[in-house]
Amino acid sequence: MSKASNLSTVPSFIRNTVANIHPLNHTFLIHKVKDTWVEISYGEALEKIDAISAWLLNLGIQKGDRLSLIIENGPNYVYYDQALQQIGAINTSIYPTLTESEMEYILNDSGAKTIIAGTPFLFRKVLKIANNCPELIRIIPAFEDFEKFSDKIALNAGVVGLNQVISEGLSLVEQYRPAINAAREAILATDISCLIYTSGTTGIPKGVMLTHYNLTENVTNSLIQIPYVEKTDRFLSFLPLSHVFERTIYHIAIYTGSQIAFAQSLELLAKNMEEMQPTILCCVPRLLERIHDKAIKNGMSAGGIKTKIFSWALEIGKKYRIVQEAGKTPNIILSTEQKIAEKLVFSKIKAKTGGRLKFMVSGGGALPKNIGEFFGDLGITILEGFGLTETSPVMAVTERHRVIYGTVGRIIPGIEVAIQNIDTKEIYTIQTHDTFKEDLLSEEGEIIVRGHCVMKGYWNKPEETATVIDADNWFHTGDIGRFFRGNLQITDRLKNMLVNAYGKNIYPTPVENTYLKSPKIEQIFLVGDKREYITAIVIPGKETLQETFGLKNEFFENPDIFVDDKEIIEWIGQDIRKYSNELAKFERIKAFKVKRNPFSMEEGEITPTMKAKRKVIEKKYAADIDAMYLGEVEVD
Asked: CA 14, CA 253: separation in Å to the nearest integer?
C-alpha cells in the first residue's frame, strides 16, 4: 500500500475510509452479543461517534482536555475514542488490571475530566477513588443497571450511562455538527492524541505524550514496509487497546479499511479464532508459546503412528523452511513431502486458528527463536515488531520475504536507529530503512532512535524527558541490541542486565528463553546480580503439572508460595540441567525454587504486557532468593 497524503491526524483515517474505500453500510466492527456475532457498519459507528462528540462539546469539553477510558476492547471503546479524538481531546487509557491507587494517580496526574468504565467491576473501582480526583466531572458506565452500584454513594462527579450519552448526543448532533467539523479541522499533527502511561517496572508510571503525527506516521510508514494489509482483511482484536501495540493495529485496520472483530476474552480466544476466521492476528510471544506447547503436546501424546507422522511432518516442514529461507526452490521430492505434511498435520493445526491466517504479528516482547521457527515449519508466517510506548511504537518490523528468526526486522522508513556503546557513548552505526544491507553485522550496544516515532515527551515531567531524549534528539530506549544480517536484534533491557560477582554481564531474557523451551516451565525469573552464580524462580505449567502428578486444585490453593515436593523439584531439575548445556557456564542456573502459582498483575509482579517487575519480585522474595545462595536447593 502506498503512503496516503494529508492523513496526518487520527480522525482523518476513518473519514478517508468512508470517503474512498468503503460505503457507509460496509461492516466495520464485529462483536459477540450473547451467542451471536453482530456486525456494525461504518455508518452505524459514525452515528454514535458524532453523538458522543456532540455530548462532550455540550458538557464543555475543549481541545486538549484529557478524557480517560478503563474499558475492555469492543465497539464502545472505538466510539468513545474516535469521538474524543475528532474534537481534539486526549485519550488517556488505563489498563483494566491496574490497582485503584494506580488509577487514582493517572487520573490526577493527567487531570482527566471524564472516565468511561466498561464493566461493573471496573465501575466499582472508579467509584472508590472518584472523590479523590478533583478534576473528574463525569463517570460514564458502559453497561445497564449501573445505578445499583452508585445510588448510595455521594459523588462529586456526575454519573451518566453511555446509552444516555448517545441518546442525548443524537438530539444534539445537528446543533453541534458545525462545531464537530471545525474541531476536527483544527487538529494539528503536532497536537497530543493520547497519553499512555508506562507500566512502571522501575518506578512511578509516566504519561507518554504521543501526537497525531507520531501515530499516523507510524501507521503509514509501517505499511510501506509490510504492504500486505488489505481492505478485505479481518483482524481479531484481543490485546488491550490501552496498550500502544494494539492501538497501532487498530489504527492500521481503520486506515486500510480492514474489519475488526473483538474476541470475547483470552480464555475464549481459541474458540473465537475458529468462529471469526481472521486473516491477521496480532499477539504477544506468550500466546504463541502456548499454541506451540499445546500443538507439541497433542502431537507427541497421540501415540503410535500418529506421533510418528507428527514428528516426520515437523522435520519435513523444517527442511522446507530452511531451503526457502536460503532463497532456493525446494526439489520435487521435498515439495511433495511438504504437501503431504500439510494435509496430514499442518492443516489441522491451522484450522484451529480459523484457517485463513495470512500472517501473525508478534510484539510486546522478544519471541524465542525456536517458537518462530516452529510456526515457520508449519507454513505460518510470524512477523516480529519492535518498539516502545515512547516510539509510537514501531521502530522495526519483519518483512515477510525476509524472515530471520531471532530478529525484529528492518528499520521502518523515516527514522534513524543507532547502536551506541553503553560506556563510551560512541555510536557504532546508524541505520535507516534505505541503508539496509543483508550482510550487516554490528557491535552490540544500546539502541537509540530519532525521527517521527519519538514521543513529544513525558506529561508534566520535563526532567525525566531530558534524561531519555538527548541534545541531538536521540531517544535512548534502554534496550540492548545489534544489527544482524541487516535486521535489528534485541538482546535485553539495559536495566535487566545482571553483572555477577566476577564482572560477567548476563542478559536474562535470552537465558530465560533457553529454559522456556522446556514444556514443563511456564515462567522463569533469573537472579544473580552481584552474586557468584545464577539462580531462578521457576513456575511450572499448571496443566502439565496436574497431568504428570495427578494434582488437584487444592495443590494450587496451598498458602505456601513455594513447592517443597522433592519429586516435583527433581522433575523440573531434569530440564534445567538439559537446557543448561546450551548456555555458557556463567549463565547456567545453579539453584532454583519452584513457585506454586504464576507471577500476576494482581500481585503487582508483572506489567499488563507480561514483563516481570524485577525490583518488586526481588524485594518480595528476598528471603527465598537469599536461601538459594546458602545451598538449600542445588542443581547437580
From this structure: 10
Over residues 520-564, the pLDDT tens digits come to 999 999 999 889 899 999 999 998 999 999 999 999 999 999 999
> Number of structural domains, the chain?
3
Q: Poorest-confidence range of 19-23, 99-103, 330-334?
A: 99-103
Q: Are residues 403 and 263 in the same domain?
A: no
Asked if residue 591 is part of any domain, the answer here is yes
481 shares a domain with 518? no
Q: Is residue 525 part of a domain?
A: yes
C-alpha–C-alpha distance, residues 577 and 588, integer Å = 9
Distance from CA of residue 241 to its chain's centroid? 9
**Is 126 inside a domain boundary?**
yes
Q: What angle do CA 117, 119, 122 make, to 5 degrees?
A: 60
Whole-number average pLDDT of the chain: 93
- One domain, residues 260 and 382: no
Q: What is the pLDDT of residue 5?
A: 47
CATH label of the domain that carries residue 531: 3.30.300.30
| pLDDT of 500 strictly over 90 | no
pLDDT tens digits for range 281-317: 999 888 898 889 889 989 998 889 999 999 999 999 9
Q: Are the CB atoms for 79 and 104 separated by under 8 Å? A: no
User: Which residue type sits at 499?
Assistant: V
d(CA 249, CA 432): 23
Do 180 and 308 have their domain in common?
A: no
Q: Is the pLDDT of residue 430 over 70?
A: yes
- φ, ψ (nearest 5 deg) of residue 28: -110, -55
Last residue of a domain, one of 246, 279, 312: 279
Indicate whether 579 and 453 sit together in one domain. Answer: no
Amino acid residing at 552: K
83: in domain: yes
What CATH number corresponds to the domain at position 253?
3.40.50.12780
d(CA 218, CA 414): 9
Does pLDDT of 202 surpass 70? no
Nearest to 26 by CA among 9, 42, 12, 46: 42
Measured distance CA(586)–CA(375) in Å, rounded: 31
Q: Are residues 503 and 542 in the same domain?
A: yes
Domain that holds residue 557: 497-628
Residues 579 and 517 sit within 8 Å (Cβ to Cβ):
yes
State the pairing for strand pair 280-283/158-159. unpaired
Q: Are residues 307 and 239 in the same domain?
A: no
pTM (two decimals): 0.85
Residue 49 phi/psi, 5-degree rounding, is -60, -50
**How many Cβ atoms from other residues are within 10 Å of residue 40's Cβ?**
18
Q: How far is CA 121 from CA 100, 114, 317, 319, 540, in A?
A: 12, 18, 46, 50, 30
Containing 526, the helix (H) or strand (E) segment is: strand 521-527
Do residue 488 and residue 521 come from a single domain?
no
